[in-house]
Design a protein that fits this description.
The chain has a five-stranded parallel beta sheet, with helices on both faces. Helix 2 packs parallel to helix 3. The protein is about 50% helix and about 15% strand. By secondary structure, the protein is α/β, with parallel strands linked by helices.
Length: about 190
């Protein structure tokens, strides 16, 4: 018997349409009790990226969130969760000690036991510069963040970094055998 999906995670690169898809999914599930979380509510805003020990904080928070999700799903058969990013692939193995990596792997195993489905809005390479560059963001802090991020990840341009990120998400989902669907969200 196939379990009904009740936890929906939207994973994708910047500009791929995650928020638009989130709103569409929310509308489609309007007869359910929807617990939805935006990326920044899950401590994954770009503004959190450089806070000391944010990886540990996020990992602890993600586990606490899974505790909460498990509790609500047991209590209410009409409840669903929509997470606009859970950053399944956020950790860089080189940045994690063995203890953190073990905790992360346990978190993924917990997630896989839930009635979860991942939606991945995808962009074609030629769309990335236009849609993922956040040209509307003019502030210096954003520009510094992007420069530091490109340097940290070893890329000279945004398109290559996001192509790599998008592939990393897809490869991770295939490897972990987590149910997922690719979606194209029009601008």
């Amino acid at each position: 018997m196939k379990k009904e999906n009740r936890v929906f995670i939207i994973e994708g690169i910047a500009g791929s349409g995650k928020t638009t898809f989130h709103n569409q999914l929310k509308n489609k599930l309007k007869n359910k009790i929807i617990y939805d979380f935006a990326e920044e509510e899950l401590l994954f805003s770009w503004k959190h990226a450089w806070i000391k020990d944010i990886g540990k904080i996020r990992l602890n928070f993600m586990n606490k969130l899974l505790d909460y999700i498990e509790k609500i799903l047991k209590q209410d058969p009409n409840a669903v969760f929509i997470l606009n990013r859970f950053h399944l692939t956020y950790p860089r193995v080189t940045d994690m000690n063995k203890n953190m990596l073990n905790k992360y792997n346990k978190l993924i195993q917990r997630l896989k036991k839930l009635p979860v489905h991942i939606y991945v809005p995808i962009l074609k390479k030629h769309e990335i510069e236009e849609r993922a560059s956040h040209k509307e963001r003019k502030d210096k802090v954003w520009q510094l963040h992007m420069q530091k991020r490109l340097k940290q990840r070893g890329f000279s341009n945004l398109t290559d970094m996001y192509v790599c990120e998008q592939n990393k998400i897809l490869n991770f989902l295939k490897k972990q055998k987590i149910p997922y669907s690719l979606v194209r969200v029009k601008k």
